[in-house]
């Protein structure tokens, strides 16, 4: 019964290149997004997974779109967004990219002591500006301090229906972990603690609530 419902999920980090051999990124493993994609497929949804570089196999039955940079992720998400009813943005998108990416490897002696950065577009914010009736848009909030306040601000500023708040300063659930501890917050004021569980169990909890 879910087979005509399209679910679009982003996962993993982005890479922002400085030159052909160096980039800025973050330690996102992609595990949460891949677990969500697998669970969504198991529930019968038609699933597109847009993934930054990770060491994971694409889940069976899921259409995997590999990207590297935030700009590539934005383009791919925008192209797939129109047909999707459920959009879940777990990717740890780099907020900035180097202003310049050198075509040739920068030699050690010529490497600058300062790099200039420009801001990447807020992808989920851009999607929610284009939202159609009936679409559910879910973000993640990776926080290290006052998580509730920051997550609620992001829920509002990015125009989301739900935000999954997690405290990435907690070593046990930080980047790369197999478990997570998520509280789901909705624009209607709900606050639903899903508890400390495997990312597979958290994925089930998220889908149970956003698409009951
Ligand atoms: N996000 C996005 N595009 C960006 C940055 C973030 O779509 N350029 C999405 C993430 O995928 C996540 C949500 O926005 O769903 C919140 O990301 P997070 O990194 O927690 O917050 P930021 O918006 O980057 O804000 P800050 O770094 O100030 O906490």
Write the layout of secondary structure elements.
Layout: E1 6-11, E2 16-19, E3 22-24, H1 31-42, E4 46-51, E5 63-66, H2 70-81, E6 86-89, E7 96-98, E8 117-119, H3 123-129, E9 136-143, H4 147-157, E10 162-167, E11 179-186, E12 191-198, H5 199-210
Parallel strand pairs: 1-4, 1-6, 4-5, 6-9, 9-10
Antiparallel strand pairs: 2-3, 7-8, 10-11, 11-12
This protein binds cytidine-5'-triphosphate.
Cytidine-5'-triphosphate (CTP) is lined by residues 70, 89, 91, 93, 95, 120, 122-124, 139-142, 154, 158.
Strand content: 25-35%
State the major sheet: 8 strands, mixed
Q: Strand order, biggest sheet?
A: 5-4-1-6-9-10-11-12
CATH fourth-tier homologous superfamily: CoaB-like
In CATH, the architecture is: 3-Layer(aba) Sandwich
The helix/strand class is alpha/beta
Please give the count of helices: 5
How many strand units?
Answer: 12
CATH topology: Rossmann fold
Q: Which sequence of SSEs, written as H and E, runs from N to C?
A: EEEHEEHEEEHEHEEEH
């Amino acid at each position: 019964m879910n087979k005509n419902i399209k679910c679009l999920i982003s996962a993993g980090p982005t890479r922002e290149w400085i030159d052909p051999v160096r980039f800025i990124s973050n330690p996102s493993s992609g595990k949460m997004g891949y677990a969500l994609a697998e669970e969504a497929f198991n529930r019968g949804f038609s699933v597109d997974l847009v993934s930054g570089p990770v060491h994971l196999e694409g889940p069976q039955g899921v259409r995997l779109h590999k990207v590297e940079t935030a700009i590539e992720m934005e383009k791919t998400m925008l192209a797939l967004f129109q047909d999707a009813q459920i959009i879940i943005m777990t990717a740890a998108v780099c907020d900035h990219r180097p202003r310049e990416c050198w075509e040739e490897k920068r030699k050690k002696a010529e490497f600058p002591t300062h790099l200039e950065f420009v801001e990447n577009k807020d992808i989920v914010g851009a999607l929610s500006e284009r939202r159609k009736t009936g679409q559910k848009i879910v973000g993640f909030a990776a926080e290290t301090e006052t998580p509730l306040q920051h997550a609620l601000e992001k829920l509002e500023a990015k125009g989301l229906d739900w935000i999954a708040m997690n405290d990435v300063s907690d070593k046990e659930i930080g980047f790369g972990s197999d478990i997570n501890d998520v509280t789901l917050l909705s624009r209607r004021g709900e606050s639903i603690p899903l508890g400390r569980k495997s990312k597979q169990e958290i994925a089930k909890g998220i889908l149970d609530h956003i698409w009951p």
